[in-house]
Backbone:
């Protein structure tokens, strides 16, 4: 995958046909605006692949860092306050997909990657016929926030 497409999904808003509705985008933006957290850095120090037909290869965390968990949790709280249900069908596994269509799992560990988080985005992910990420909003993390 192109590095411009690297991302870590905090919350999946669900599979919707076509573009996200303006109402859902508005409510998600309100939830995002409620997040109060200072910028932070974490390390992607694990690698793996989910068992799907696409066999994506990803980088993740051996342990989810507290600041990343706080960002996920604050956003989840905001989404629930906006009446947007959480995707609780699967546990949240923070990861960055770096390759799609891998034929098999990688056999060699990869070096750790340090990732600085200064903001987060709302993205409408259109997967077919050609994958496209449409940015809908961006919220900075605030220095000095708790």
Residues:
């Amino acid at each position: 995958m192109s590095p411009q497409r690297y991302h870590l999904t905090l919350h999946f808003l669900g599979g919707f046909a076509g573009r996200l509705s303006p109402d859902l985008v508005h409510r998600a933006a309100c939830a995002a605006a409620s997040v109060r957290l200072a910028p932070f850095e974490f390390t992607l120090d694990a690698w793996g692949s989910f068992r799907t037909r696409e066999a994506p290869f990803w980088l993740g965390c051996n342990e989810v860092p507290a600041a990343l968990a706080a960002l996920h949790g604050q956003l989840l709280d905001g989404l629930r306050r906006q009446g947007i249900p959480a995707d609780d069908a699967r546990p949240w596994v923070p990861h960055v997909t770096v390759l799609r269509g891998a034929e098999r799992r990688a056999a060699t560990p990869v070096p750790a990657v340090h990732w600085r988080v200064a903001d987060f985005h709302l993205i409408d992910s259109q997967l077919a016929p050609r994958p496209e990420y449409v940015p809908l909003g961006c919220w900075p993390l605030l220095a000095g926030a708790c």
Observations:
- Helices lie at 22-33, 66-81.
